[in-house]
TrEMBL record, chains A, B:
Residues 1-171 form the CYTH domain. This is Putative adenylate cyclase. It comes from Methanolobus tindarius DSM 2278. Coiled coil: none annotated. NCBIfam families: cyaB. Gene3D superfamilies: Hypothetical Protein Pfu-838710-001. InterPro entries: Adenylyl_cyclase_CyaB, CYTH-like_dom_sf, CYTH_domain. Pfam families: CYTH (PF01928). SUPFAM superfamilies: CYTH-like phosphatases (SSF55154).
Amino acid sequence: MLEIEVKARADHLPVKEQLSVMGAVFVGVQHHCDTYFNAPDRDFAKTDEALRIRSVDGRSVMTYKGKKLDTLSKTREEFETPVDGGITRNILLALGFYESGIVKKTREVYRFENMTICLDRVEGLGEFMEVEIGAESDIEGHREQIFSFLANFEIGEEDSIRTSYLEMGLEEI
Amino acid sequence: MLEIEVKARADHLPVKEQLSVMGAVFVGVQHHCDTYFNAPDRDFAKTDEALRIRSVDGRSVMTYKGKKLDTLSKTREEFETPVDGGITRNILLALGFYESGIVKKTREVYRFENMTICLDRVEGLGEFMEVEIGAESDIEGHREQIFSFLANFEIGEEDSIRTSYLEMGLEEI
């Protein structure tokens, strides 16, 4: 599965007003605590991979993200499975992985057509908007659709942030 | 959690008769398909670790087993979490792990006091009996309890097999 995703800084208040005008459906609010891991045999900061355990309101998922496949978006291969978060952390540490950072955020989720819109308030970093489409192919077509949608919020290609919250947080330190 | 475990070859028919006499409780039958993985940065055959995805009647768990902590039993640290088996396989392969073997078996499970008794019929290897106690400490005391129980089946310390089914299967090839 490909995750075609564009992220940009965005004040949430005007974005929510515009989402309401367009008829986007509010899905819910999630509280994320994301623990990122790095590998014993290579540096994910260099290979552009990510391995994460996300705890969402008491439930956990483990996610692997491959390197980005596109220069204008955050499109990449993604695998995600439900896990027991604490035990999976122990397994990863035993296998030689180590924690590289923790990102905490509140995410408000909306749906519009085939898109998932996430309004993220990230601890220490501020407010962001992410638009995602899950697809098997056609990166370019889906990316164009996302940027066409984002034009409603006066967000253009030049606003696209391909840096992860983890990397942004590490830069802040 | 420690898994204090002793394994030996055993014909199932007389074992079942003795379990019945002793009043062991039959728990159920499971069909296991175990896929073992090796690591990109070290050889689990040398470090005496194991990483496995077990599919049991459609549900999957990922298990990490540390090196054995005892010379007379298979006692070791173990972490196990429910997962989506197919997706977790993809994550492990993306992280550089590779499949080292597959073990298929039918397991009949019994309970007696604080022990779990597994009667395993392993494809290509034959019939075995495993007795396990999960505990936080006291390897020696629990191991003695297991061997005292196994004496009822005329199984002694000299019959204990510390080689995994995976290793036994690889030796057969």
